[in-house]
UniProtKB/TrEMBL annotation:
It comes from Piscinibacter sakaiensis (Ideonella sakaiensis). This is Diguanylate cyclase/phosphodiesterase with PAS/PAC sensor(S). InterPro entries: GGDEF_dom, Nucleotide_cyclase, PAS-like_dom_sf, Rev_trsase/Diguanyl_cyclase. Residues 191-328 form the GGDEF domain. SUPFAM superfamilies: Nucleotide cyclase, PYP-like sensor domain (PAS domain).
Length: 335
């Protein structure tokens, strides 16, 4: 609401005393530790100082009253404050300025809104100056910490992780060990489990990045994105493992072929919609997946690994970006 309209409405209230209203408003501001000040003139002494403003200056309010900024602050601080006061008077109305000055022994970033109230019949610069201060220092620090954290996350996400020597062989041994444990548990508890074989469909390249070092970086970023998806969208009891050559294995504990297929489809859709940032561009990727389960697909670990890999190859043969099921084995009944 415009200030003139506010004045008109307040003037219509019977028995309302303007000084009393101003005092009440300042009391409300003090209760919220708002930093408010009133000066008699530009560059002049303080006529009113709220506790919030006194805290910014690092002095008791009594030490500020009757004194000017030039008396209280060093020149690098009070000179820009006084210049902003002069601009507020020259422009009229509410004027907001941002200051980065030393106050109370600390460097602060402060927004100050100023309003000059000219005196009827006086010179243009006569009349009190009302000021509201907002300390943005902590907010700026939080924003800077947040931006720094975001940059670190982006750098970590963009940095390809070098695989240690012999990583594919170690990964193969790890998944085989996990499968042996899961097979032993499933045999004892008479339950199912599934193995999903995953392969990225195509080299992670963009039209303007068709070759070696850049293509390698893009491929590494997509591999990292796939590992991250597997970590975020698998249960604690499941296990994902990178096998090298763009292939991954996902062990789904305690689920049958149908459930494993549904979860693989969900993961395939997530991969197809994942956005992978690299050097200001966005990479997309799809995967081919093969699903096998124990005991329906194979009765031993070697057969399960071979069946999931064969199903993955079938998904690739069909054009990729799909999930293929391994065939269900049928044992001949004894004669």
């Amino acid at each position: 609401m415009p200030a003139d309209e506010t004045v008109r409405r307040l003037s219509a209230v019977p028995g309302l005393d303007a000084p009393q209203l101003a005092a009440a408003f300042l009391s409300l501001a003090d209760a919220l530790q708002a930093a408010i000040a009133i000066k008699g003139a530009v560059g002049g002494p303080f006529l009113h100082v709220s506790p919030g403003l006194a805290a910014l200056y690092g002095r008791p309010a009594g030490e500020l009253l009757g004194r000017s900024d030039a008396e209280l602050l060093d020149a690098p601080a009070w000179v820009p404050l006084q210049a902003a006061e002069q601009r507020a008077v020259a422009l009229g109305g509410v004027q907001a300025h941002r200051h980065r000055i030393e106050l109370g022994g600390a460097l602060r970033e402060i927004d100050v809104a100023r309003l000059h109230l000219p005196v009827a019949g006086g010179a243009a610069h006569d009349g009190p100056l009302l000021m509201l201060w907002i300390d943005r220092t902590e907010q700026r620090r939080r924003d800077q910490r947040l931006q720094q954290a975001l940059r670190q996350l982006e750098e970590q996400a963009a940095a390809p992780r070098a695989a240690p020597a012999g990583a594919p062989a170690l990964a193969q041994a790890r998944i085989e060990e996990l499968l042996r444990r899961e097979l032993d548990l499933s045999q004892r508890e008479q339950r199912e489990f599934a193995l999903v074989s995953i392969e990225i469909d195509a080299p992670a390249t963009t039209p303007d990045r068709p070759s070696s070092p850049e293509a390698a970086r893009a491929t590494a970023r997509v591999q990292e994105a796939l590992r991250s998806l597997l970590e975020r969208h698998t249960r604690a009891m499941d296990a994902a493992c990178a096998l090298g050559d763009g292939c991954h294995a996902l062990l789904l504990s305690g689920v049958g072929l149908a459930t494993a297929h549904a979860r693989a489809e969900e993961l395939r859709r997530r991969c197809a919609t994942e956005l992978v940032p690299l050097d200001g561009e966005v990479l997309r990727f799809t995967v081919a997946m093969g699903v096998a389960s124990w005991p329906h697909t194979a009765g031993d670990l070697e057969g399960l690994l071979a069946a999931s890999a064969a199903a993955r190859a079938l998904a690739r043969q069909r054009g990729g970006n799909q999930v293929a099921l391994a065939g269900i084995r049928f044992e001949r009944a004894p004669a």
